[in-house]
Write a structure and sequence with these properties.
The complex is a heterodimer of chains A (about 300) and B (about 290). With about 300 residues, chain A is mainly α. Chain A has two domains: about 45 residues, no CATH class; about 220 residues, MetI-like fold. Chain A is about 70% helix and about 0% strand. Chain A contains 14 helices and no strands. Chain B has about 290 residues and is mainly α. Chain B contains 14 helices and no strands. In chain B, helix 5 crosses helix 11, helix 9 runs antiparallel to helix 10 and helix 13 runs antiparallel to helix 14. Classes of the chains: A mainly alpha (about 300), B mainly alpha (about 290). Chains A and B meet through helix 1, helix 2, helix 3, helix 5 and helix 6 of A and helix 1, helix 2, helix 5, helix 6 and helix 7 of B.
């Protein structure tokens, strides 16, 4: 993002500034936002952990404080209740979606890198799938993919099923790809634009043709930002609830029963809150791996760079 | 074409044209069908027409009675508007302290702000739902199904996101003005109100808009925490779609019209604030 690129204040002024500010730190200003965040985020998260250890269902819901503590029994049961299957579906779906969107996004960035008449319009078109709310994307694709919908009539197929049965998995992936590739495009475009003009000129002077230039000179610039984008995109795919929920409804067909759907159905249709909390906590562990890598890579702080990493 | 542009061109022209056309078609073919279908009649769409045999705005008129869209849109605007204002203002003050002062636990908070954006919504919704539904029992309050309950629930993801957007903006803001004001004897509140807020107004607007969009685009929380009177636009659309299932006559044209109506506020916000919002998209990776 542009603001990250702004230069830091010089070392000297910074040291002086710190002396001034350290004397009177208005930490009480953190209180309104901080207390609210503790109330609406930390307490619920802690409660989620606790719920995963108690036997909470529709009968004990109103008096959850008195629900019986059953230790790890919910976790053991979630293994039998299809958690591993859902993890497999979620992870494979997310990885396929990410892998396919990368070349599309990079190609889109490459074709809009140079100015030409109408480029603004093309860029706006590229952003459409991303700007549309997920629930709108899911609704329109659901309508188009109905057995008597437009997709079947264009393909000349009668009543072939996209939203249930074995094809639903690929439907989910295709719609996710359609909606998510512009994110990779945006991140690659930002990276492309940070390539120095001298790099282009040097390649032109050396008479390098476009393919070696692209592979050897330009793509290395994109590697870091695109890898970061891939991590974030994969996390977003794994966490996407809206798309499967609106496309297929709840409960979802077995082969699109992704983790958020499994947790949702177990808690709000099966009313087994303890069990679903255990599933949600377990799914957090899957997310923790890419999230940890992402948190290491993202720049948190102005003062952090250099030295530490 | 100048020599400069020639040097930075990355693809040979035929390939550039082919790729652009392909990518645009991938987006525009479904989009144009959606728009055309919404202007068609339900019968016309059901018979498989791509190009309508007759154009009409009939579907756009019908949806206000067949789907509960007006209630939904009104509720969405109220709840998401409040979420946007609260999280943008609180996010700014919190971010200001996080950027300008060093204290114990600061990096942990920053890391938490980023990490929270990737916490699955289901994990947050579950305890929030349990707390809300037991509030009647323990506190004598009805929370599930109310607008303010949904507002509180939306803060769980809007607040950290807005705060992070403000952090990325404020750390690029030079300190000189604040320091001049401080030597003049201005208090922190005055500095925040008179200097930081006006200077970072574009970012505050972006933080607010993103908070609004997070709420507008949410289906998960709203599908559990609302009743029919407090449905948001997203839930109204989803219920409309699900209720058409298995009906004798499919109302695909109305579905498309209703979906487009739900997208209009979002598209308008992007058109007006495009320049600012695209930067924010890459900052957080949240729609």
């Amino acid at each position: 993002m542009a603001t990250q690129l702004l230069s830091r204040p010089e070392e000297k002024t910074e040291r002086r500034a710190r002396k001034v500010t350290e004397r009177q730190r208005p930490l009480w200003l953190l209180a309104p936002g901080g207390i609210l965040m503790v109330l609406v985020i930390l307490i619920p998260l802690a409660l989620a952990l606790w719920i995963s250890l108690i036997d909470l269902d529709q009968y004990t819901l109103r008096r959850w404080v008195e629900a019986p503590f059953i230790g790890l029994a919910n976790y053991a049961e979630s293994l039998d209740a299809g958690l591993l299957h859902s993890i497999w579906i979620s992870v494979s779906f997310a990885l396929i979606a990410t892998i396919v969107t990368v070349p599309i996004g990079i190609a889109a960035a490459l074709v809009t890198q140079n100015a030409y008449r109408g480029r603004g319009l093309v860029r706006a078109v590229f952003l459409i799938p991303y700007v549309l709310p997920s629930f709108v994307v899911a609704t329109v694709w659901r309508t188009m993919l109905q057995p008597d919908g437009i997709v079947n009539s264009l393909l000349g197929q009668e009543n072939s099923l996209w939203l249930s049965g074995s094809r639903s998995y690929w439907t989910l992936i295709l719609v996710e790809i359609w909606a998510a590739w512009p994110f990779i495009y945006l991140m690659s475009l930002a990276a492309l634009q940070s390539v120095d003009h001298e790099v282009h000129e040097a390649s032109a002077v050396d008479g390098v043709t476009w393919w070696p230039k692209l592979i050897k000179v330009i793509l290395p610039y994109l590697r870091g930002p695109v890898l970061l984008a891939c991590l974030l995109a994969t996390l977003n795919h794994i966490n996407n609830f809206t798309l499967p929920f609106v496309l297929f409804g709840a409960p979802a067909p077995d082969n699109v029963n992704v983790m958020p759907m499994l947790v949702y159905v177990t808690s709000f249709q099966g009313l087994r809150f303890g069990l679903s909390a255990a599933m949600a906590v377990a799914s957090l562990i899957i997310i923790a791996i890419p999230l940890f890598v992402y948190l290491r890579a993202v720049r948190l702080d102005v003062h952090e760079e250099g030295g530490k990493r | 074409m100048s020599a400069n542009a020639e040097a930075t061109r990355l693809l040979p022209r035929p390939m550039l044209v082919t790729l652009t056309v392909l990518l645009c078609a991938m987006v525009l073919v479904p989009i144009s069908y959606i728009v055309l279908a919404s202007l068609n009649s339900d019968v016309g769409v059901a018979s498989g027409e791509f190009w309508p045999s007759s154009f009409s705005l009939e579907s756009y008129r019908k949806i206000w009675t067949t789907a509960d869209l007006s209630t939904g849109i009104l509720n969405s605007i109220i709840v998401c508007g409040l979420t946007a204002i609260a999280s943008a203002l609180l996010g700014t003050t919190t971010a200001y302290v996080l950027v300008r002062y060093k204290f114990w636990g600061r990096l942990t908070i920053l890391r938490g702000l980023v990490g929270l954006q990737s916490i699955p919504g289901t994990l947050m919704l579950l305890p929030v739902f349990v707390l809300f539904s037991s509030a009647g029992n323990y506190l004598g309050l009805t929370v599930v199904g109310t607008r303010w309950g949904l507002f509180v629930a939306y803060l769980t993801f809007a607040l950290p996101f807005s705060t992070w957007v403000m952090v990325t903006y404020l750390r690029g803001l030079p300190r000189e003005l604040e320091e001049a004001a401080r030597t003049e004897g201005a208090s922190t509140l005055v500095i925040l109100w008179r200097i930081i807020m006006p200077l970072s107004l574009p970012a505050i607007v972006v933080a607010g808009i993103f908070a609004f969009l997070l709420g507008w685009n949410d289906v998960l929380f709203a599908s559990v925490l609302t009743r029919p009177e407090t449905h948001t636009a997203a839930v109204a659309l989803q219920v409309f779609g699900a209720s058409q299932e298995g009906g004798a006559l499919p109302v695909y044209s109305q579905m498309m019209a209703a979906a487009l109506v739900c997208a209009v506020p979002v598209v308008l916000l992007y058109l007006v604030f495009q320049r600012y919002l695209v930067g924010g998209l890459t900052a957080g990776g949240v729609k």
